[in-house]
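ENTRY TYPE: paired fold submission
RECORD: A
CONTENT: sequence, then structure tokens
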Amino acid sequence: MGVENNECVIAVTWNDNAVKVVSDFVDGLPKEYQRLVAFIPSLVNDKTTVFMAPCGSKKGWQEDKDAQKVRDELIAIISSLDYSDGSNPFDWVEVGFGEYGQKVLRGNCRNVYSDADYAV
């Protein structure tokens, strides 16, 4: 037995060079982790969504620990693209959902509009 929870990364950008940096990172991953990452074009505004799917492992299993390392590396690559003003070409979030409930684990988005529906 083990807890079933899912973690994934969703990152969106307009910057083709930033997508290339992430794509090069993904190309260097073992094949089983490459399968978890998709690059999805938007319908408008020439954006790309990078999606890293959950690995399917139960919490605490070695596969879960290994996938967490890959998510950490992916987020480090994305974060390394920060501009000097602290902004980043990606809006990104890591989320968890399942038997632990649902939660934004980390991300770089801040509410700049104070919209009550999204206010933290």
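RECORD: B
CONTENT: sequence, then structure tokens
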Amino acid sequence: MLISRLVPLSIILVVSIFAAVTAFPSAMSSGLVLVANKGEHTLGIIDPHAGRQIAVIAETGVTGHEVVASPDGKLAFVPIYGDSGVGLPGSDGRSLDVINLDERRIIHTIDFGQGVRPHCPVFGPKNGLLYVTTELDKAVAIIDPRTFKILGKIPTGQPESHMLAIAPDGERGYTANVGPGTVSVLDMGAHKTIAIIPVASHVQRISVSPDGRWVVTADTEKPRLAVIDTKSNQVDRWIPLPATGYGSAFRAGGKQLLVALPQANSVAVIDTGNMQVQKTIAVPSAPQEVLVSPDGVAFVSCDHSAKVAAISPQGTVKLIDAGRVADGLAWAK
């Protein structure tokens, strides 16, 4: 777990409300939340309306950290990373499980041919192709999600390319390169790296604003969030945080950015108009990834607690039981 330096909490309003399901929008978007339960080597399926995990599917290996659903909501793709953390010794995963969500079973396993530690799967917003980070290959693999064939790769030019985010227009991709503390800017069409941005000594996770203007990634050794200007491909500014950050996600419209703070057991809510923390919201121990549903409910995996916290747009929190070491999240419509 990350070690952080706390800054004074007087600069923010700390909100800690755990409320009932009835406080959530009555017209919550229809869909499912998928969660990678690392401690159990399973994919969990959560019904957000019922507020519970309704099924688990055993993975073929140890273990999936991240997950993505196909645009039609029928399939889930879970890369099998291995039994270690990024940059640490351990097994090197070489496969990706394809899961039929209706049948709740694995229907195919894609083999990368060698240990590459596949990690973060993302669908291209325009072409429908599946992109998966392959850390040991210093690349992003390109997969046809219909035939399950590996079509090629995009080099990142850096080791430990752990997380991937793709701009809304599908033209650019951005990888958080953990150990080097950099972000690689990828030309998704030309399959090449066009820039490597120095950020910090160590970074984790990455997200892109809905308008494609900003890319954000957390400095995991200092309580601050890097804001990268996608026009200049440089760090434009830093947002001070009350503790070191981790996963992040923008709400629809891009007016708010939510950032998990693992050491503070909370989520920071940032106003993107002034790029400042508005408030923090208390969640169970060790929040990791943030997923925002179409109607603005933020789901936060809390891996020390086997919980997923669901945060309404108004800041109300309800807790959903998940599996041990809950981590990666995805929305399946």
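NOTES ON RECORD B: The first strand starts at residue 13 and ends at 15. The radius of gyration is 18 Å.
STATUS: closed
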